[in-house]
């Protein structure tokens, strides 16, 4: 079977699901979400702006925290934790006041969870649902970070905010080869939760969705993983599911200048509410693992332009050696092929992005028996138009990797600047 035929099958399986999750949610409406997430409702918690510290529960375990408050949101330049739970929401309420109140409640809950505390007031009233669903009780915060962003659709006419949409924040253009399914596209709000424990990450998304009841509904979610710190105590660059080290060419997150240049929106470019925020792109990229696994190692290495074992650029010996794109073989051909992923992604080297992707495995495609696995690509950048788009245009046109991957989901979000204690996420916009 050729790759094209396979891609036809993939498209069938991805696009012709009888009833999508999103359809179900539409049919179920807001009440349905409540049913899906359990009958908990919001319990005694959730009065906007209320300080939770006075009566809040004891910390579950205070180790392993990433500070929630700060100039910038955590979860962006934070070294990637082991697991990801990503959620996109559609807002059902038409009132800005509801949305503002939701972000206030979410901020309070996120601050609690990142400190390893249970959400809401600590009580043992047996006649009402608990304000925290409980599955993280007793667990370490596990370096959980909760990063909030809003998508282009947030700025339609519903909330009177259309004048505040950043010029940067638009749905991505169609790229060559895209086979997008609405099951993993878009969203008024995107929340990235990362933690060193999957149950802690899931707990965060579940409780944020529960808090949103009546105002916003989940429209898609994606879980992700990489090797855990336990399996790799020396913290080597993690490998993706194609077996290659992934992240080597990322800019240095400890270099403030590089982060200001690449990741953080600066005052001069505006809008003012986005200063110290960042734009996030997510692409759900399915891998044709079965095809890759039948491909010779030399071909695999030519696809990326790096050696699989060491991660070094072809023709070099160490992972962090310069790419050396000018090197040529005896036959005059470049050592790093012209259609290799690193050469095309690198371009002239003047533009970078910060990649923060996770592998995913979501069962199998029942039509083909193939694995629905790949990369949940996440990148942060100061400008989507100047950084991500030209890169993806080059890759979608010529990348040899395209024989083995297909982009099936896509979303962009403007991630707010960080929040000071006493404030709330989104305050600069609302
Ligand atoms: C399933 C899809 C993808 C896989 C498996 C993949 C894998 C890799 C690998 C193995 C490397 C080399 C090691 C490294 O520097 O991290 C790399 C580099 C890179 N990739 Fe990807 N990638 C994928 C998609 C993308 C996309 C969609 C973009 C952006 C549009 C992208 C941008 C980059 C960049 C900027 C580099 C570094 C290039 C440099 O050295 O300057 N990748 N990728």
From TrEMBL:
Domain Dyp-type peroxidase C-terminal: 237-419
Region feature (Disordered): 229-249
PROSITE patterns: DYP_PEROXIDASE, TAT
Keyword Hydrolase: no
GO cellular component, one term: cell envelope
Documented EC number(s): 1.11.1.-
GO biological process, one term: iron import into cell
Cofactor(s) needed: heme b
Keywords of this entry: Heme, Iron, Lyase, Membrane, Metal-binding, Oxidoreductase, Peroxidase, Signal, Transmembrane, Transmembrane helix
Cofactor note: Binds 1 heme b (iron(II)-protoporphyrin IX) group non-covalently per subunit.
Any GO molecular function: metal ion binding
Membrane-traversing stretches: 24-46
Subcellular location: Cell envelope
Keyword Heme: yes
Residue ranges constituting the Dyp-type peroxidase N-terminal domain according to the UniProt record: 73-226
InterPro entries: Dimeric_a/b-barrel, Dyp_perox_C, Dyp_perox_N, Dyp_peroxidase, EfeB/EfeN, TAT_signal
One Pfam family linked to the record: Dyp_perox_C
Enzymatic reactions: heme b + 2 H(+) = protoporphyrin IX + Fe(2+)
Protein task: Involved in the recovery of exogenous heme iron. Extracts iron from heme while preserving the protoporphyrin ring intact.
UniProt similarity note: Belongs to the DyP-type peroxidase family.
Name used for this protein in its record: Deferrochelatase
